[in-house]
Amino acid sequence: MSVISRLREKPWLAHAAGMDPALQATPERWPQRTALLFMLAISTVLFFLFTITFLGRTQLPDFQALAGEPWQPLTNPALLWLNTLWLLLSSAAMQLALWQSRRLRQKVSPWLALATLLLLLFLAGQWQLWQQLLAQGYALRTNPANSYFYLFTAVHGLHLLAGVLALAKVWWQRRTPVQFSRSLQLCTTYWHFLFVVWLLLFALLTSSADTYNTLAALCGF
Amino acid sequence: MSHIAVTDQPDESKHPHSFITKYVWSQDHKVIAIQYGITAIFVGLIALALSALMRLQLGFPDTFSFIDPAAYLQFVTMHGMIMVIYLLTALLLGGFGNYLIPLMIGARDMVFPYLNMLSYWTYLLSVVVLLASFFVVGGPTGAGWTLYPPQAILPGTPGADAGIVLMLLSLAIFIVAFTMGGLNYVTTILQARTRGMTLMRMPLTIWGIFIATILGLLAFPALLVSAIMMLLDKVAGTSFFMPALLSLGEQLDYSGGSPILFQHLFWFFGHPEVYIVALPAFGMVSDVLATHARKNIFGYRMMVWAIVAIGGLSFVVWAHHMYVSGMNPYFGFFFATTTLIIAVPTALKVYNWVLTLWRGNIHLTTPMLFAIGFIFTFVHGGLTGLFLGNVVVDLPLSDTYFVVAHFHMVMGVSPIMVLFAAIYHWFPKVTGRFLHEGWGKFHFWATFLGTYAVYLPMHYLGFLGVPRRYFAISGSDFIPESAQSLNAGITVSAIIVGVVQLVFIANLIWSLRNGKPAGSNPWQATTLEWQTEHTRPGHGNWGKTVPVVYRWAYDYSVPGVKADFIPQNVPNEQLEFTDEQLYRESQQ
C-alpha cells in the first residue's frame, strides 16, 4: 500500500465484525533495516551540508583549490586512486561475504576479515596522504581548502570505523545463519553507501577552481 | 534480532530485578522517560532562575552589584540555550516521546532498549558538560544562544575561551544523544505498532512526535556541522566562518571566512527546531482537548496532513531569521513567501482545535485549562509571527523586544502550556495518582495571566524600539522614561510566575504520595496507554497479550453507544448500545 493511500484512510469508519482490513495482514518487521535507512539519511544530510558550505566557501577570495594546476598536490592523486581501489575491494569483499552467508556456507568470516583489512588499508592510506600534505606545507589552517580536505576525510574515516565496530558486533552476536545473513546485508549496504560517498568526496576534493565556480553558480552562490 | 523479543512476548526472565537495573541503568522506556523528564525539568529550573536574574537587572538597573554586563549576557545565552534544547526538546521527545510511544501504539518497549538507555546517559553527559561551563575560568559563553561568529569566539565576549568550547562540545554530545533516541522513536513507530494500529489510527500525539523526530534527525546535523566547524575555528585556527579581522588592535590569523555561512547553517537547524518543539505539543494538545471535551478531534486527517505539511515546509523558511544579516534581498522575498505559506496548515490546526471544542462536553479540568490556554497563547504568538515574517515589518522590529515577545509566546509559553497540560493529564498514568486540582488551577491561572503580564508589555516596548540583549537602556533619547516603569512591572510579574512554578513542583512531589488515587483510566480516554493491565504499567506494559486495535483514537460520544467513549482495543461486538439505538435497529 502506498504512503498516499495510507494517509487517505478514513479511520473513523466502522468495520463489520471480522472485516477490518487493518487486522487482515501482519506486515513483516525488520526494525534494524528501518533504523539503518534513517541513519543513511542522516549521514547523507551531514555530508550534503558540509558540501554546501564547502561550495559556498570556494567562492571567497582566499580559497585555493588543491587540484587543477600542475603544482597543486592533488592534481595527480595517485595515492587517492590506490586508496579508492582498497575501498572498492573492501566493498566487494563484503558483498561476497553476504552472498556466501545467503547460501548458508561457512566461508563468511574470511571474507569479512578481508573486507576489514582492506578498509583499514584505506584508512592507513588516507593517513599517509595526510602526512604527505603536511610535509608539503598544506596544514589544516593554512587554507580553507586544506581545512575541508582534512575535515571531509576525517568524518568519512570515522564513519568507516563505526562500520567496523558494527560489523564486529554483528559477527560477535551471530546466532543462526539466517539472522547473521540479514545483519550482514545491513552492514554491506552501509559499506556500499560509504564507498559511494567516498567517490563523491574524491571527485569534489580533487576538482579544479573552475569546476567549483560552475557548481557554486548552479547552487546560486 | 534479539531486541524484538520484548515487543512480541513477555519474557519473565528479562525483567530487571536489582535496584540498579530497574531504576538507574534501566532499559525500560518508562523509566528512561522519567529520567529524561526529571533531568530536563531540573535544568529548566536553572534556566528559569537565570531569566529571573536577567529580569532583575532590566527591571531595577544599578541595584544588583553582582550582575555586570558580562554576567547578564551569560544569563541570556544560557537561559535561551537550555530552554530550547535541554528542556523543551529533551522533555517533549526524550520524556513524553519515550513514555507515550510504546504505550500508545501498543508495543512492549522501544525496539532498541539498550540504545534508548545510552541516549539518556549521553544526554545527561551533555547537560553535565553544559553546566560545567559555569565553573570554568571566564564562565559560560555570553554569545547569545545563536552563537554567531566571529564574536562568539573572540576576546571581549564573555566565556570566549573555555565557555564556548564547552557549549559546542555539549551541543555535539546532545545531538549524538538525540540521534540515538530519535532513531528509536521513528523505528518503533514504523515497526512496532500492534495489530490493527494503522498509521491513521495513531493518536495525534504520536503523529506529532513522529514528524518532529524526523525533523530533529534531519535538522540537528546542521547544528552538528556548524558546531564542529566553529570548534575547529576556535581550537585549531581554521577559517571556516572567521573573516580577516582586527581584534584589540591586532591582526588575527583568520582570513576570508563567512559568518553568514554559519547563520545559514544555524538557522537551517534553528527553524525546524521550532517545530521539533511545536509539533509534539500540537499532537498532545489535540489529544487532551478531545478527551476533556468528550468529542472526536475535528478533521483528524486534516490534522495529520497539516503536521506533515508543516514538517516539510519548516525546512524552507529558515532565512526569515536573517532578514537583517545582509543576505541577497531576493532571498527575503522567497523566505517571506514560504513563511506566510506555513501559516496556512498552522491556522488549519487552530481552527480544528476550536471546532473540536464547539458543542463539546467540556470538562474544565486542569489539563483542559492549560490546553485551552495554549490556544490563546499560540494564536497570539502566531499572529505576531505573521507580522515578523514580512521583510519590511521585520527590519525595524528585529532586535527589539517585539521579537522577544513573539518567540516567547509562540515557542516558550505555548509549548510550556502543553507540557503542563500533558503532565496534569498523564501524571495519573505515570504514578497512579492525580495531581492536586486546586493547586493545579491556581498554577494555571497564575501562569496564564502572569505570562500575559510579562509578554504583552514587551510588544509595546518593541514598538518603542527598545533593543533586546542590552544590559541597560538608560540615557537613550528615543525611549521614554515610562519604559523603565513598564520594565519594572514586567520583572515583578516574571518573578511571580517563576515562584508559582515552585507550587507546581511542590504539587508534583506532594501528589506522588498523597494525591487522590486515579485508577487505570481516570479521564475515560480511548487511547491504549489508559488500557494497561496495571496502572503504573509494569515492565513490558501489557501483561500476557498485547492489545489489538479495532478503531481510531477518537471514538468519544459515538451516537447510539451507551458509554461516551470506546477504547481503541474494544471490538464492535462488545459495544453496549442505548435502548433508543436498539429500538431503531429493530425497526429496520
What does this entry look like structurally?
Chain A is built from 7 helices and no strands. By secondary structure, chain A is an all-alpha fold. In chain A, 29% of the residues are buried. The longest helix of chain A has 29 residues, at 144-172. Chain A has a domain at 75-219: Cytochrome c oxidase, subunit III, four-helix bundle (Four Helix Bundle (Hemerythrin (Met), subunit A)), CATH 1.20.120.80. In chain A, helix 3 runs antiparallel to helix 6 (177-205). Helix content of chain A is 70%, strand content 0%. The mean pLDDT of chain A is 91. By secondary structure, chain B is mostly helical. Chain B has one domain (2-241, 258-557): Cytochrome C Oxidase, Chain A (Up-down Bundle), CATH 1.20.210. Helix content of chain B is 63%, strand content 1%. Chain B is built from 16 helices and 2 strands. Chain B has a two-stranded antiparallel sheet with strand order 1-2. In chain B, strand 1 (246-247) and strand 2 (250-251) form a beta hairpin. In chain B, helix 4 (69-105) packs across helix 8 (259-292), helix 5 (113-132) packs antiparallel against helix 6 and helix 9 packs antiparallel against helix 10 (329-357). The radius of gyration of chain B is 25 Å and the shape is globular. The N and C termini of chain B lie far apart (53 Å). The model of chain B is unreliable at 1-7 (pLDDT under 50). Classes of the chains: A mainly alpha (221), B mainly alpha (588). Chains A and B meet through helix 2 and helix 5 of A and helix 6, helix 7, helix 8 and helix 9 of B.
